[in-house]
Amino acid sequence: MSASNQSRITHFKNLSTLVAWDAELGSHVYIENADLVMRGNTIVHAGSGYAGPADEVVSGSGLMAMPGLVNVHTHPSSEPGNRGLLEELGSDKLGQSSLYEYMPVFRMGIETAPYANQVAVSEMLLSGVTTFVDMSLPRPGWADVVAATGIRGVLGPMFRSAAWRTTDGHSVEYTWDEDAAEKSFEAALDVADSAINHPSGRLSAMLCPSQVDTCSPGLLKQAQQAARRLGVPMQIHAAQSVVEFSEMTRRHGRTPIEWLDDQGLLNSDLIIGHGIFLNDHRTLYWPHAYDFGLLQRSGAHVAHCPTVFVRRGIALSFLGRYLRAGINVGIGTDTFPHNMLDEMRLACYVARLQAGNFRAASTQEVFNAATVNGARMLGRDDIGRLAVGAKADFSLVDLSHPYMRPGREPLRSLIYSAGDRAIRDVYVDGAQLVRNSKLLTIDIENAMQQVERAQAQTIATVAQRDYAGRSIDDMSPRVFPSRA
Fold first, then answer.
1. Residue 169 carries which DSSP code?
2. Which of 74, 165, 201, 409 is deepest in the core (most CB within 10 A)?
3. Long-range contacts made by residues 321-324, C-beta under 8 angstroms, separation at least 24?
4. Residue 134: which residues within 8 A CB-CB, separation 6 or more?
5. Does residue 405 contact residue 413 with C-beta atoms inside 8 Å?
6. Which pLDDT tens digit goes with each residue over 398-447?
7. What is the DSSP string of 323-374?
8. Cβ-proximal residues to 217 (8 Å cutoff; 6+ apart), any chain
């Protein structure tokens, strides 16, 4: 941002509703007929009665300003290419997961990653996300691709000691290669450095050892030491599948959560990707552990991504239980679409269904999870809230949209009815990235064409990668047969 832009004052005047942060209450609050003012990329007023100077005044009539959403778990370099393939697939003999039999077969080449990333970021921006954690394989130019979209990005390069595969559809094999792991880890450190030192000032880093069952203790110790040296958090997929739980208890006689604790990793610097299959999950029988208590005492965080699991009949048990025990839970869009508002709505509904209790997850809890909880995971108190001194990351919601009316409770209307249809404008770091629901920084048509081309190439060759040599129509049949 240039020096002139850093001093430019923009006044959003007489907003119908402002979702502001009240430090004394430690809570978001509604303020009616309010003003939001930013100088450059920083909020300088969030409340009633601004009477100071302004270089630009924007009418806030009929609009709600809300803090930018923080998406703590995404795989944007690959997931857009899975649309139309994975919605109804899981392995019935591998815990109903699609991780082992299908996802490796459908994965697009890394050359398509920049375009898939643009598609995913476009979905996030249009649903009000202003900060996201990008968990992808290290690649050259990654930081520049994310920075060009204008979003606030946390690059989370993934690395691991072992690759998994199935050769029969009912068992999983692990191939260990510590030399390759070391090279991947070094590449991850290069990515982290490129993000931390990026001239945009909007990028940061996170280290992401891929999965608890694919990383050796030595690699995890290296990662922990590097994360502490860089001052960044760490995130690992753990307690995400029945296969993983069974594998870790077979190897070590310890649950995935217990094993992480044994390694000295389960602490407030660690984010658990998913954290579903604790020992007391109803699909398991492992009564001689207390994973929930370990999580609660450790200060570790959980990235909750309901959509990808609900597709396969799997769910966290349950969101309100975690939050009310003091476990910090954020929201992520692990899969396509990267629509954060849809994910938030589903998080509420799934928790209530799992608990058989309509109070099992409140709108307030889920909105906090998608804002201040996510910011806390990243070690930040200047995003996920609208307050003086915070970054100017926010959305303007059209309260006149039919799905937002009647307008008594705007956040409920947004999450349960309107969704991304009512997101009008989005600002990140004081710059407008979405205007009148249109992207300003991404050529979405070109990006989508590239992803479509890559998906077509991938599905034409799935038989070469599938252990059973199946065609795409055998692996992922269309909803109805084609007919001339």
1. S
2. 74
3. 321/292, 321/355, 321/360, 322/275, 322/295, 323/361, 323/365, 323/369
4. 74, 76, 77, 117, 142, 146, 153, 154, 155, 156
5. yes
6. 999 999 999 999 999 999 999 999 999 999 999 999 999 999 999 999 99
7. HHTT--EEE-B-SSS--HHHHHHHHHHHHHHHHT-TTSS-HHHHHHIIIIIH
8. 263
